[in-house]
Amino acid sequence: MTEEDGRALRTALGRFATGVAVITVATPGGPLGITANSFASVSLDPPLVLWSPAKASRRFRPFVEADHFAIHVMGAEQGDLAGRFVREGNPFGDLTWKSDPEGTPLIDGCLARFRCRRAAVHDAGDHVIVIGDVLAASHRDGAPLVFAAGRYGGFASSD
């Protein structure tokens, strides 16, 4: 694939709107989080979800090696919160959060949250697929934050 084809592929994939999630793990250096739009449901029985971190990310290894992680689905009003976890740094500094029994950082106020135990990691090109056993799930009412064409947006119902 040429560089031009690669740009066209990325642009075409960007036309598919996704939700926005922040994945968190506990590390020896403290809580770590990353924004992702690669979250998906896998199975209801047993309850499994997946997400796909990029191998090129400097934060890749802690997320792939963590025994437990949490996936936080962002609400429409949480674009700024999602943006805090896009780059490296300490987005937890003034953020309200707590640890679950496994030590995983949990962010308050998200649209939905899935506490997970790592079930499998599969190689997938320049990413890996991390599958998690869902230990607990919670949610609140609200509209989701949406990501398409490189930007955050909202959801408009066709009703």
Q: Count of DSSP helices?
A: 3
Helix content: 10-25%
Proportion of beta-strand residues: 35-45%
Low-confidence runs (pLDDT<50, min 5 residues)? none
Structural class designation:
mainly beta
Give a count of the beta strands, DSSP E runs of length 2 or more. Answer: 12
Quote the distance from N terminus to C terminus.
41 Å
SSE pattern: HEEEEEHEHEEEEEE
Task: Give the overall average pLDDT.
Answer: 92
Largest sheet: 7 strands, antiparallel
Sheet with most strands: strand arrangement = 3-2-6-9-10-5-4
Identify the overall geometry. globular
* Gyration radius, rounded: 16 Å
Describe the structure.
There is one protein chain. With 159 residues, the protein is mainly beta. It is 14% helix and 44% strand. The strands form three sheets. A seven-stranded antiparallel beta sheet has the order 3-2-6-9-10-5-4. It has a three-stranded antiparallel beta sheet with strand order 1-11-12, with no helix packed on it. It starts with a helix and ends in a 6-residue tail after the last strand. The model has no long low-confidence stretch (mean pLDDT 92).
Which keywords apply here?
mainly beta; 3-stranded antiparallel β-sheet; 14% helix; 7-stranded antiparallel β-sheet; 159 residues
